Amino acid sequence: MVYQGKSVSVRQLEAGIAELCFDAEGESVNKFDLRTVQELGEAISALEQLPGLQGVIATSGKGVFIVGADITEFGSVFNAGSDAVIAHLSKNNENNNRLEDLAVPVVVAINGFALGGGLEFCLACDYRVASSAAKVGLPETKLGLIPGWGGTVRLPRIAGVDTAAEWIASGQDQRAEAALKAGVVDAVVAPELLRDCALHTVRQCIDGALDFKSRRQQKTSPMALNDTESLMAFETAKSFIGTQAGKNYPAPVAAVKAMQAAAKAGREAALAEEAKAFAKLAQGPQAAALVGLFLSDQLIGKKAKGWEKRADKKIARAAVLGAGIMGGGIAYQSALKGTPIKMKDIAQAGIDLGLSEASKLLTKRVARGRMQPAAMAQVLTRIEPCLSYDGFKQVDMVVEAVVENPKVKHTVLAEVESHVSNDAIIASNTSTISISYLAEALKRPENFCGMHFFNPVHAMPLVEVIRGEKTSDTAVARTVAYANAMGKKAVVVKDCPGFLVNRVLFPYFAGFSMLLRDGADFQQVDRVMQAWGWPMGPAYLLDVVGIDTAAHCETVMAEGFPTRMGKHFKACTDIMYEAERYGQKNGQGFYRYETDKKGKPAKLVDEQAYSLLAPHCAERREFSDEDIIARMMVPMVTEMARCVEEGIVDSVAEADMALIYGLGFPPFRGGVFRWVDSVGIDAVLAMAEQHAALGELYAPTPGMLALSGKKYYA
């Protein structure tokens, strides 16, 4: 052994050829943490001093190559300022430069994921051979950053500006064949041939059949573009990418600007431009939010896996009660991910609708090339439509998704309990009704919990798993395990009206109703909140959710929290509901809807909505953007704070992720609590005080007041 560390080793393979291997001790994957960066430097020193060295292959001892930097280390580095960030980047940039400057050729064997810093290491090597199972990419823009270890320098010099701009701006993983076509890798072989291919390639370099030195010259020199070509390439990329990314996500355009600034520079000066751009973004709010979001996502994934390990059995077969759109979506998701499911309804029309929904979603996957027709057929065979309870004794899990009516649910839940085994778990997909109340209909309430999916099921990642007063740990564990198997993000919450997501959504809607009552134009509110980052404004969102559904939920919330959510005026949702304007489902709500050429509902202004609102609202007037944002967001913040302080959800991170995955809360803001941290709790308290006359929804919680001058994410 030439060098042996805990993450990196070097050994002699045969005369003149050494192997540099990444294999982090005690870890399932390789990543560039501080230890690995230090050991890589030491390993390169060992290679530089190795007598008779003629070539190097770089490999991984894991099932993947290197998944990137250790993002848990970002916080302390970023908080130390720009100089600290640049110093942090320089350590591994020095490693990559030394690797690139070795007197002998270096060939990397990419056996799995090579992402971020992992791909940047590969770009510093002379030749890249990949397993057909490998995926490569530079996902840094998803964290509000750009590549910082040479990605914006080497990738455009290897694959061209267009490919580099597309790959870096999108942050998407690329399959091995796509990387080969783009010229990012030099060969793609079957996994079992990868090592031999790497050795063959390095021997060709040694023998002079491959000219590795000219490749290095290309990577370390200015780009081979004249002024006109450079201007056209970069300006076109900035314009297109800027339009796609939007103003709230500056990293993709910053990456193109860094490439442009370094286009006429050699390697060291180009890397300096990259580091400067990276450091600037690292100090910005988007990076703080998106890095935090990544870490919070890891947290909820870890907690969900922890629950899954506590499950005493796997959900081998499931059932959903109530077909229709929601039931069909649940059946589709279960079957798609491999769990067979019965789909029961009381009427054939419901069954037909559920099967149609599943078939439509599968057909779209086939049309987009994401699934073969044979695989679609296999998924459909996992969905068993039925009008009776035959075979329910063999079912491990039943998800009730019938109409949102307590009496109907009581009847259905009691009925299904008599047809399943004593061991089966029953879960309700209710969006607001108390799980403890629904459990009163059951003989085995310990086997019952909430499993709240969000519509559309296939697109919305979140599942709220709701623990009632008598729900057992076993029921929670199996339900979370089933959510994991369905590819969902499970967050466990305690029972209360609206649970977590709807409990904090309806104060947001209440803020909207009060704005309209006081004379705001719902179109202006929609524009402001969409510009703030929401995927759609509150009026449009109510139309999409269904105003009849929203009116029902508002009633439940008002009964549960009368002093905060009780209505003391004619709310806009009640006005629309009484006029039978239910939103997209019947073509009229706050807006009017017509089907466009693609078969989707197109939103149109409808003056009749204004006529209906006028008798119940103050004369229409302009509000400042700041006032609209404060009046919309403060109720959501205070209710989220109450949920954490009451223990409805275990942590601020889980609360934030629930809103991001369940509502589409703007990811670049990182969640409600990260937004509070970014503007400052004292600024939010000032907003609340300014609007205190609007009622208890604007009253800060004791926890918020105690946090003055501090942060939720310490």
Write a structural description.
- There is one protein chain.
- The chain is built from 31 helices and 20 strands.
- The strands form 4 sheets. It has an 8-stranded mixed β-sheet, with helices on both faces. The chain has a 7-stranded mixed β-sheet with strand order 1-2-3-4-5-7-10, with helices on both faces. Strands 6-8-9 form a 3-stranded mixed β-sheet.
- Helices cover 51% and strands 12% of the residues.
- The model has no long low-confidence stretch (mean pLDDT 95).
- Helix 3 runs antiparallel to helix 12, helix 14 crosses helix 15 and helix 23 packs across helix 25.
- The protein is an alpha/beta fold.
**What's the total count of β strands?**
20
Query: Could you report the average pLDDT, rounded to the nearest whole number?
Result: 95
Side-by-side strand order of the widest sheet: 13-12-11-14-15-16-17-18
CATH topology of the largest domain: 2-enoyl-CoA Hydratase, Chain A, domain 1
Radius of gyration, CA atoms, in whole angstroms: 28 Å
User: What portion of residues belong to β-strands?
Assistant: 5-15%
EC number: 4.2.1.17
GO molecular function: 3-hydroxybutyryl-CoA epimerase activity; delta(3)-delta(2)-enoyl-CoA isomerase activity; enoyl-CoA hydratase activity; long-chain (3S)-3-hydroxyacyl-CoA dehydrogenase (NAD+) activity; NAD+ binding
Pathway: Lipid metabolism; fatty acid beta-oxidation
Pfam families: 3HCDH, 3HCDH_N, ECH_1
